[in-house]
Design brief:
The structure holds two protein chains of two kinds. In chain A, strands 2, 5, 6, 9, 10 and 11 form a six-stranded mixed β-sheet that branches. A three-stranded antiparallel β-sheet of chain A has the order 3-8-7, with no helix packed on it. Chain A starts with a strand and ends with a strand. The radius of gyration of chain A is 14 Å and the shape is globular. Chain A has strands spanning 3-5, 10-14, 19-21, 24-26, 32-38, 45-49, 60-61, 72-74, 83-90, 99-101, 105-110. By secondary structure, chain A is mainly β. Chain A has no helices and eleven strands. Chain B contains no helices and eleven strands. In chain B, strands 2, 4, 5, 6, 9, 10 and 11 form a seven-stranded mixed β-sheet that branches. In chain B, β7 and β8 form a beta hairpin. Chain B starts with a strand and ends with a strand. Classes of the chains: A mainly beta, B mainly beta. Chain A binds chain B through residues 32, 34, 36, 43-46, 49, 51, 86, 88, 92-93, 96-104, and chain B through 3, 31, 33, 35, 40-43, 45, 48, 55-56, 59, 91, 93, 95, 99-100, 102-108.
Chain lengths: 111, 114
């Protein structure tokens, strides 16, 4: 079964601390993985996708096929990073493109 | 437009009434997706369109739910004979043709069934 799991509902850190939001997936083929972020009162927006291998707002995520994980990391958290983060999976170009989301993790960065 | 536009922002209906939600995808995007989010939980995929054709409807409830994307009109999601459990935020997303293209989301429509 296709599934995305984000084990933490809430992650609370102090400003300047490292952050890791966990994401594990279950998929039999070659998935595409995404991180979406939702800031307060704003729409869901794309943060990262694994094929781009880029860093956005200091965040990175590496696809680990052995561990079926796509954890989101940032070395030094900022207060403006406080938001809801969703990990999502798509079944690749052969799939219909629908996204399967995790439950979401609220990141709270305290001053 | 440059953003996915969903209307209305909030819709209140009595149980048993009909609800209709609208989505205007980003200009040039061929795919439209509808998701349901109940109580800030997971997003549940409902249906997708490639232009005006249904692409994947595996998430659509068999009864009461229908959707359309007609040329030169916003896409729509309609729920007949609403039930309390239909209360949710309904999100629309669109994306361009081509593999690996990300989906762009609208603000969602909050449907409250009383």
């Amino acid at each position: 079964a296709q599934r995305v799991t984000q084990p933490e509902k809430l992650l609370s850190v102090f400003k300047g601390a490292p952050v890791e939001l966990k994401c594990n997936y279950s998929y039999s083929g070659s998935p595409e993985l995404f991180w979406y972020v939702q800031y307060s009162r704003q729409r869901l927006q794309l943060l990262l996708r694994h094929i781009s291998r880029e860093s956005i707002k200091g965040f990175t995520a590496d696809l680990n096929k052995g561990e079926t994980s796509f954890h989101l990391k940032k070395p030094f958290a900022q207060e403006e990073d406080s938001a809801m983060y969703y990990c999502a999976l798509s079944g690749g170009s052969s799939n219909t493109g629908k996204l399967i989301f995790g439950q979401g993790t609220t990141l709270q960065v305290k001053p | 437009g440059e953003e996915v536009a969903q209307t209305p922002k909030h819709l209140v209906r009595g149980e048993g009434q009909k609800a209709k939600l609208y989505c205007a995808p980003i200009k040039g995007h061929s795919y439209v997706f509808w998701y349901q989010q109940v109580l800030k939980n997971e997003f549940k995929f409902l249906i997708s369109f490639q232009n005006e054709n249904v692409f994947d409807e595996t998430g659509m409830p068999k009864e009461r739910f229908s959707a359309k994307c007609l040329p030169n009109s916003p896409c729509s999601l309609e729920i007949q004979a609403t039930k309390l459990e239909d209360s949710a935020v309904y999100f629309c997303a669109s994306r361009q043709v081509g593999g690996n293209q990300p989906q762009h989301f609208g603000d969602g429509t909050r449907l409250s069934i009383l």
